[in-house]
Write a structure and sequence with these properties.
It is a single chain. With 97 residues, the protein is of the alpha+beta class. The protein has three helices and four strands. A hairpin with a 5-residue loop joins β2 and β3.
Length: 97
């Protein structure tokens, strides 16, 4: 498995718009066999969001970035973001969720 934790810092006042785009991305992955986990979390910081992803493998994740809807959502989100940080890449072993 391949895990990824990303932090998004939005432009001031754009957090809710970015949340909507991330939730649309999550919905689009509901039936994707390679996506095991895609969770969006808020932060105590008003413009900071976190996304935790678990995929069957890194190549499946990379391929998902080329899907037409994914590319469209990324293009819509870019101008709303101040900073994107890949916090952690790991290899989940198992557990609940």
């Amino acid at each position: 498995m391949y895990g990824l934790w990303t932090t998004f810092t939005t432009q001031t006042g754009q957090r809710d718009h970015v949340i909507a785009l991330l939730l649309e991305a999550a919905a689009s992955l509901e039936t994707h066999p390679g996506c095991l986990h895609y969770i969006i979390s808020s932060s105590d910081e008003p413009d900071v969001l976190h996304v935790r992803e678990i995929w069957t493998n890194a190549n499946t994740h990379l391929a998902s970035l080329e899907l037409p809807l994914t590319r469209q959502l990324i293009a819509q989100a870019r101008p709303l973001l101040q900073h994107v940080e890949r916090v952690l890449e790991d290899r989940p072993i198992g557990g609940k969720g």
